[in-house]
Design goal:
Radius of gyration: 22 Å
Distance between the termini: 72 Å
CATH architecture of the largest domain: Alpha-Beta Barrel
Strand order of the largest sheet: 1-2-3-4-5-6-7-8-9
Largest sheet: 9 strands, mixed
Structural class: alpha/beta
Strand content: 15-25%
Bound molecules: pyridoxal-5'-phosphate, iron/sulfur cluster
Oligomer: single chain
CATH superfamily of the largest domain: Aldolase class I
CATH topology of the largest domain: TIM Barrel
Helix content: 25-40%
Shape: globular
């Protein structure tokens, strides 16, 4: 390639609009990306994977470029975004769509009000990429063969209803703007959501949660209008005593490139506070060394590692979930390697709507059956919540028990009973 062509390519590659225009959403585009070497069997396997996935596919060329195609099956970046039919395991019998019961905790469409003083605003249902393990597979992204999505479109009228609820509910002081992803909002829409929230006097903290910095970092360095809108909101918030922060979603140290460094430096210099949330996934980051590198790299970029979540129960990703026991082990290995405030808290977002709990704080955990039972006194004091380890982490006998509805319901009620007895002992 001539030097000029190469420079033009580089220039295009660093342009977020070019990345978005060339995002890959279909297998034939993926085949074209791979070119002459495309393996027909693999492409068919991906088609089978997509047919069983609750999430549509969308990947930026930037992310495609991070994938090591010579190690496609094992690659930690690939695993997050491209399903392969032959790797999908049967789901755990306790898997339900919307396992966190978000829709049931929504007083108005697009706002989840589960905790006392904080709420989650779903600004849009689009993201720059779609992650296979997305909790919000009931609503985020395009329809798939399996799921027709509950839309959350980026419309002012929808936001107005949400803002009216927030204004009328001053107990809420903390709003997470998620979705969907604010990287898919136009600058004017980002400003509208930000200034709308800043106009509500009771709100003290606003966070924009985004996968964008991890999958489209050139947005920050090339879309000046969008970054300007974000910085404007951040400055306006600071001036009126409201903290605005930016919550990123990096899962693997290889997701941090020169593009990421340039974007994070720009945001840091312009005073945007950043924190990171990671999802713990088998074959991606279920290794203390990988997690240590991730934490160190994020800390160097002044992105504070905030949470590591165990994977929610989402269809088609059973092979990527990790046990509660493994999450506890990795947390133990991690704590102490760097500043405590840069050491993430490992959490389980409890199925059934108990909210996030420290992974170690179970009332009862049985490694044999893979059941962990949590209480959530600040959310629903009367209830107990269970998280279940993936079946493949259990003995064959325990797996057989789970596949028999009668035995499954017995081991579940036994675990609840033990947990109730144990937690009573403290009261
Ligand atoms: C995660 C979450 C929040 C924010 O919780 P933090 O623990 O403060 O990060 C708020 N509302 C809902 C529904 C959530 O899932
Ligand atoms: S970026 Fe976030 S909201 Fe979007 S698909 Fe991924 S996990 Fe879901």
């Amino acid at each position: 390639m001539s030097r000029i062509a190469h420079e033009m390519m580089r220039h295009e590659f660093a342009d977020a609009a070019w990345q978005e225009r060339h995002a890959v959403t279909r297998v034939d585009q993926l085949r074209a990306w791979v070119g002459g070497d495309a393996d027909g069997n693999l492409m068919r396997d991906i088609e089978l994977g997509l047919a069983r996935a609750p999430m549509a596919m969308r990947i930026t060329p930037y992310v495609l470029n991070l994938i090591d195609w010579s190690n496609f099956f094992q690659d930690p970046i690939r695993k997050q975004f491209i399903p392969i039919g032959s790797e999908i395991l049967p789901s755990h019998p306790l898997l339900r769509m919307d396992s966190l019961h978000e829709r049931e905790s929504s007083p108005v469409d697009g706002l989840v009000h589960r905790y006392h003083d904080k709420a989650l605003l779903l600004a849009t249902d689009r993201c720059p990429v779609y992650c296979r393990f997305c909790t919000r597979s009931y609503g985020v992204g395009l329809d798939t063969q399996l799921v027709s999505k509950k839309r959350a479109s980026p419309f002012q009228s929808r936001w107005n209803t949400i803002l009216a609820y927030l204004r009328a509910t001053p107990v809420i002081v903390d709003v997470v703007v998620s979705g969907g992803d604010c990287f898919r909002l136009k600058p004017s829409q980002l400003l509208a959501v930000g200034t709308g929230l800043l106009s509500i006097p009771s709100i003290r903290r606003i966070r924009f949660a985004t996968k964008g910095l991890a999958v489209l970092p050139m947005k920050v360095t090339s879309d000046h209008e969008w970054t300007g809108a974000l910085v404007n909101i951040s400055d306006a918030g600071r001036n009126q005593g409201v903290e605005i922060s930016f919550h990123t979603h990096f899962n693997h140290p290889r997701e941090i490139t020169d593009y990421t460094i340039a974007a994070a430096e720009l945001l840091f210099k312009r005073g945007v506070r950043m924190r990171n949330q990671t999802v713990l996934m088998a074959g991606v980051n279920d290794d203390p060394e990988v997690m240590k590198q991730l934490v160190k790299k994020l800390s160097d970029l002044h992105i504070q590692p905030y949470y590591v979540y165990t994977c929610d129960l989402v269809g088609g990703i059973e092979h990527m979930r990790c046990s509660v026991g493994l999450a506890c082990q990795i947390e133990k290995d991690l704590r102490g390697i760097t500043a405590g405030y840069n050491t993430p808290l490992f959490v389980v977002d409890t199925p059934g709507g108990g909210g996030k709990r420290d992974v170690h704080s179970f009332e009862h955990y049985d490694r044999q059956t893979g059941i962990a039972v949590y209480r959530a006194p600040s959310v629903r004091p009367e209830q107990l919540f269970t998280y279940v380890d993936p079946l493949q982490s259990l003995s064959l006998d325990a797996q057989a028990a789970w596949s028999d509805p009668q035995r499954a319901s017995r081991i579940l009620s036994d675990a609840i009973e033990v947990a109730r007895a144990k937690s009573m002992g403290f009261e």
